[in-house]
Design goal:
55 residues; alpha+beta; 40% helix
Length: 55
């Protein structure tokens, strides 16, 4: 899956309930795949905003 042009990997966590999404330096967790992806989307938006402010 791609969000903001970056590849996101979603996988089932073995030692916990739910799913995790990983992309660049971000790791998010959620009870379902869509929830993990939604949280990842928000995390990527936050870092994009920080990079724009730093310029």
């Amino acid at each position: 899956m791609k969000i903001a042009g970056k590849t996101v990997t979603v996988f089932k966590m073995k030692n916990r309930q739910g799913y995790a999404a990983i992309c660049t330096s971000h790791l998010t967790e959620g009870r379902s795949k869509p929830q993990a992806l939604a949280r990842m989307e928000k995390a990527l938006k936050r870092t994009q905003k920080k990079k724009k402010k730093a310029r």
